[in-house]
TrEMBL record:
This is Uncharacterized protein. It is a multi-pass membrane protein. GO terms for molecular function: siderophore uptake transmembrane transporter activity; signaling receptor activity. Belongs to the TonB-dependent receptor family.
Length: 724
């Protein structure tokens, strides 16, 4: 068999097409020498004892980046760069708090999103090399604490969910806060930060696939006055996966320290270290043999395509940053955030030559009796450096009867990647009864033979965003200018763009908040194989809806309709499978319904999405996006029956059929169920979570190139938590 015509790299957008933004933040330091020795009163008494169950003190009002009690968040900063009541935001927002994450027993960001409206997750099934989720028909942009993250690559560490206090989804174009970003929306990960109220927990998890995990989370005040607060989050994981010989290990540490020398001054410094080691469970299996039977039936879900003992991926990430806030008086606040990430990766793996179909033992196509697939090996090594930051000035003031919250400032992103890649023919594998060791791939990367790339992107953005309150109206008007430059494969692309955001919310009686908004996005896309620079991807959306959050009830519901047009999305070039071209406009329109509540002994979330995402020219559906999706999660507390601390929950997730992007292959719909039970004594909590209770075998998605991914099988995890 000859070297495959398509490689692992060709399955992903080339570096020249990657929408990664750059900006070197050189922000001056802020003098803290004037901070007096006297300090403000602590947020909570240092001697306070832990309550019987984890609750937030009534003296600690919810903030946009702090803990949420239950499933219903009231505030967010994701859409406005400032602490804002959610019912005053003229866009649909979902917040998945820590309590919901714990109850549902999820351990990955994409799994935390699976009960949210407008979001498609699990597209690549149980794939462990990267996470991919879609919002309103487009790949989501991911922020960390409001700042852009760089593009992730194979073998780079995936975000550790245990390190986050909440996960937020802002649907629709959001360049006003994120700069270069996809038109469907963004996900903002909000890190755990030091708290004044002491909390210490240790967790032990055991599960199927030989899952073993230990995690710990400590926070509280260091001194009696509450001037210094700390937090230490750590995790160690060792588990198998549903694919043979594709084990996964992780070490994660995230310390942080907050200093509040006086009222109105706060500095938080944080770090993070993560190391992932795992075997690749992503085989790129063909449509025939997964979605439809092969010559000898379907390929087993646990099939390992690579070579045991050789296959292995290592990703490490070190992160250091700070968040500074200074009250300037007179309603003005200065904020400065800065973060630097350093990621390294080493990947050695194989994938199937799915384009050749089933073969006989000599490598000849045999769709009737073939048992073999071709394989290709790949080695990839590289490093990614990302620096992101912002400098914002927020002012609260009145102009007559009109109240303003004005945010203005600059944010920057600098992204640099070095990459060395090589691949080759790895011979055949019998996918029904494999024999390993018949081919010995190279042990190390040959630098002389490898291809090398060093993409760089710089982005500088200036924004002005005014939140206006006049009577019952909450208005938003934002304008942003971005200057971005991308260098890749000898091509430099310079893009400057203006983006706008307009919104209006009417705060009616009974907690009703009807709203309407207009928003825009842009994203640079690099160049094609000839060096021709692609037009930037642009998004424009009109959205209208209503939010309901009645007073004295812990309930929030949102109904939204939207019309989103995306221009210049890249697609495969029919004349050259290694190239890409701009597509005709993509029109996405739909209806989203979502609710979350904590009502007495009942907690629940529910969502429904009706969505049409099509190419205006071909009328074909966007890949991976179902027209209908629905979910519901209900949890009941048995305290009223005299069994204090006992809870049980049940969830159902439905995803409609999805297209491969050409409408020639359709993946059937699937309905999955999840369940949990837990018992909490205050000091101790024990729980059991099961996802995909029926252990359904299903195909999660298929791509127009002809390969598919199996969905995640049943996962069972038992957890014991001790708080002290």
């Amino acid at each position: 068999m000859t070297t495959p015509p398509l490689g692992l790299r060709s399955l992903l957008p080339p570096f020249a097409l990657r929408h990664i933004a750059l900006g070197l933040l050189g922000l001056s330091g802020f003098a803290l020498a004037h901070a007096q020795a006297g300090t403000s009163a602590p947020d909570a008494q240092p001697g306070a004892t832990l309550p019987a169950v984890r609750v937030r003190s009534t003296s600690e009002a919810e903030t946009a980046n702090g803990p949420v009690q239950g499933y219903v968040a009231q505030r967010s900063a994701t859409a406005t760069k400032s602490d804002t009541p959610i019912n005053e935001v003229a866009q649909a927002i979902s917040v998945i708090p820590r309590d919901q994450i714990v109850d549902q027993g999820v351990s990955a960001v994409q799994d935390a999103l699976r009960y949210s409206a407008g979001v498609t997750t699990g597209i690549y099934g149980a794939r462990n090399t990267t996470e991919y989720f879609v919002i309103r028909g487009s790949k989501a942009t991911v922020l960390l604490n409001g700042l852009r993250q760089g593009q992730t690559w194979f073998a780079e560490p995936l975000d550790e969910l245990y390190g986050y206090e909440r996960v937020e989804v802002l649907r629709g174009p959001s360049s006003i806060v994120a700069g270069q970003s996809g038109p469907g929306g963004l996900v903002n990960l909000v890190s755990k930060r030091p708290q004044a109220t002491a909390h210490r927990e240790v967790n032990v998890e055991l599960g199927n696939e030989q899952r073993k995990q230990v995690s710990a989370d400590f926070t509280g005040a260091i001194d009696e006055t509450g001037t210094l607060l700390y937090r230490m989050v750590g995790l160690g994981l060792d588990t198998g996966t549903q694919v043979d010989d594709a084990d996964y290990q992780r070490v994660f540490l995230a310390p942080s320290l907050t200093w509040k020398p006086r009222a109105g001054t706060k500095l938080t410094v944080y770090g993070e270290y993560q190391r992932d080691n795992y075997g690749n469970n992503d085989a790129f299996l063909p449509t025939v043999g997964t979605l439809t039977p092969g010559p000898h039936g379907t390929i087993p879900i646990n099939r390992f395509i690579s070579e045991p003992g050789w296959d292995g991926n290592t990703g490490t990430r070190s992160r250091l940053g700070y968040e500074f806030e200074q009250d300037l008086g007179g309603g003005w606040t200065l904020r400065n955030d800065l973060r630097h990430d350093d990621s390294k990766r080493e990947l050695k793996s194989m994938y199937s030559a799915w384009w050749l179909g089933f073969l006989d033992g000599t490598g000849t196509p045999d769709p009737v009796n073939g048992r073999y697939l071709g394989r290709a090996w790949a080695i990839d090594e590289g490093r990614t450096l990302t620096t992101a930051g912002d400098l914002l000035l927020e002012g609260k003031f009145q102009t007559g009867p009109v109240a303003h919250t004005l945010v203005t400032g600059v944010d920057l992103l600098r992204y640099r990647r070095t990459d060395s890649y090589i691949e080759g023919d790895a011979g055949l594998i019998d996918v029904y009864t494999p024999t390993y060791g018949t081919f010995q791939p190279p042990a190390t990367l040959d630098e002389a033979a490898a291809s090398h790339s060093q993409p760089k992107v710089q982005q500088l953005g200036f924004l002005v965003l005014d939140r206006i309150r006049v009577g019952r109206w909450a208005l938003t008007a934002g304008l942003r200018y971005d200057d971005a430059k991308t260098e890749s494969a000898g091509t430099t692309q310079k893009v400057d763009a203006w983006t706008k955001n307009l919104g209006a919310v009417y705060l009616a009686d009974g907690g009703w908040s009807p709203y309407a908004s207009y928003s825009e996005s842009f994203e640079a896309q690099g160049a094609d194989l000839t060096g021709r620079v692609f037009e930037p991807k642009r998004g424009q959306q009109v959205e209208a809806g209503v939010k309901w959050s009645p007073e004295r009830q812990n309930l929030r519901a949102t109904a939204a309709v939207f019309h989103l047009q995306e221009k210049n999305r890249l697609k495969g070039d029919p004349a050259n499978p290694l190239n890409q071209i701009e597509s005709a406009p993509i029109t996405t329109k739909g209806l989203e319904l979502e609710a979350a509540a904590n009502l007495g002994a009942w907690d629940f979330t529910a969502a429904y999405t009706r969505l049409s995402a099509k190419d205006d020219e071909t009328d074909t559906h966007v890949a991976f996006v179902p027209e209908n999706a629905a979910s519901a999660w209900v949890l009941h507390k048995f305290d009223p029956y005299g069994v204090r601390g006992l809870k049980a929950g049940l969830g159902v997730r439905y995803q409609g059929k999805t297209s491969d992007g050409t409408d020639t292959v359709w993946v059937p719909s699937v309905t999955l169920a999840d369940a949990m039970v837990s018992y909490d004594t205050g000091d101790w909590r024990v729980g059991l979570n099961v996802s995909n209770i029926a252990d359904k075998s299903y195909v999660a998605s298929c791509d127009s190139s002809g390969y598919c991914w199996y969905g995640e099988k049943r996962k069972v995890v038992a957890t014991a938590t001790y708080r002290f």
